[in-house]
C-alpha cells in the first residue's frame, strides 16, 4: 500500500462505522448538525442509485458492488466536509478519511435496537455476533492508520452526546489547522 497523501481539504471527511444498531445514523446526523458536515448514508445511496448486484433473499440485503460505490462517492469526497455512515469500512480508499469512528455497543443494546427495527432473528443474531467478535473494529484497524481511529462506546444517550461533542471538536480543530 502507498501511504495516504496529505489531504488538501479544509474540512475533514469522517467515517462513522460499526455493527448495525450501534448508533451510526443517529450519531452521523447529530455530528452533521453540530459541525456543519454533510451526511452520506451509504446504505441509502446503494439502494437509491442501484450500486448493487441484486438482492440476497436469505440475508435480506443487497449484494454490494464496491467499485460502483467508490466510483459514485469519489466526487463527493473530493471537497471534504462529508460524514459517511456505513457498517463496513475496508473497501473505501484510505485517503478519503481524516477520522474513522468505530461505534461499539453492548450486545443487549444491539439486540433490542435491531429487534425494534423489525429485523429477522437470523439477521439480529448475525449482527450480535459481529459485535461480539469486534468484526468492524478489526476491519478498521486493518484498513486505517491507528492514529485516526476513534473507538467509542454508544450505549446511552449521554454517551452518544459525548461522542458527538468529541467528533465536533475534532472537526473544529481540523478546520482551524487547514484554513
Ligand atoms: P445504526 O445506524 O448503527 O444502525 P441507528 O443510529 O439507526 O444505528 O440507531 C439504532 C436505534 O438505536 C435508533 O432507534 C437510535 C437508538 N440509539 C442509537 N444509539 C443510541 C445510544 N447511544 N443510546 C440510546 N439509543 C441509541
From TrEMBL:
The region called Disordered is annotated at: 1-22
Any idea which positions bind ATP? 21, 23-26, 117
**Residue segments, region NMPbind:** 41-64
Q: Which UniProt keywords apply?
A: ATP-binding, Cytoplasm, Kinase, Nucleotide-binding, Nucleus, Ribosome biogenesis, rRNA processing, Transferase
GO BP annotation list? ribosomal small subunit biogenesis; rRNA processing
> Does Kinase appear among the keywords?
yes
What Gene Ontology cellular component terms go with this record?
A: cytoplasm; nucleus
Record-listed E.C. numbers: 2.7.4.3
Supply one GO molecular-function term. Answer: AMP kinase activity
Record's family?
Belongs to the adenylate kinase family. AK6 subfamily.
Subunit structure and binding partners: Interacts with small ribosomal subunit protein uS11. Not a structural component of 43S pre-ribosomes, but transiently interacts with them by binding to uS11.
Q: What does this protein do?
A: Broad-specificity nucleoside monophosphate (NMP) kinase that catalyzes the reversible transfer of the terminal phosphate group between nucleoside triphosphates and monophosphates. Has also ATPase activity. Involved in the late cytoplasmic maturation steps of the 40S ribosomal particles, specifically 18S rRNA maturation. While NMP activity is not required for ribosome maturation, ATPase activity is. Associates transiently with small ribosomal subunit protein uS11. ATP hydrolysis breaks the interaction with uS11.
Provide the protein name: Adenylate kinase isoenzyme 6 homolog
What organism does the UniProt record list as the source? Coemansia thaxteri
Amino acid at each position: 500500500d502507498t501511504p495516504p497523501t496529505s489531504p488538501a481539504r479544509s474540512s475533514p471527511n469522517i467515517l462513522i462505522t460499526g455493527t448495525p444498531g450501534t448508533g451510526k445514523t443517529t450519531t452521523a446526523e447529530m455530528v452533521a448538525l453540530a459541525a456543519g458536515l454533510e451526511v452520506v448514508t451509504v446504505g441509502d445511496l446503494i439502494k437509491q442509485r442501484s450500486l448493487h448486484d441484486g438482492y440476497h433473499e436469505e440475508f435480506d440485503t443487497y449484494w454490494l458492488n464496491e467499485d460502483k460505490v467508490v466510483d459514485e462517492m469519489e466526487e463527493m469526497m473530493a471537497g471534504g466536509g462529508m460524514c459517511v455512515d456505513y457498517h463496513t469500512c475496508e473497501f473505501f480508499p484510505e485517503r478519503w478519511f481524516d477520522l474513522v469512528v468505530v461505534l461499539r455497543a453492548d450486545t443487549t443494546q444491539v439486540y433490542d435496537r435491531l429487534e425494534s427495527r423489525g429485523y429477522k432473528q437470523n439477521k439480529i443474531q448475525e449482527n450480535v455476533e459481529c459485535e461480539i467478535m469486534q468484526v468492524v473494529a478489526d476491519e478498521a484497524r486493518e484498513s486505517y492508520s491507528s492514529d485516526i481511529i476513534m473507538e467509542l462506546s454508544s450505549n446511552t444517550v449521554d454517551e452518544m452526546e459525548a461522542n458527538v461533542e468529541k467528533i465536533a471538536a475534532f472537526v473544529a480543530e481540523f478546520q482551524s489547522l487547514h484554513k
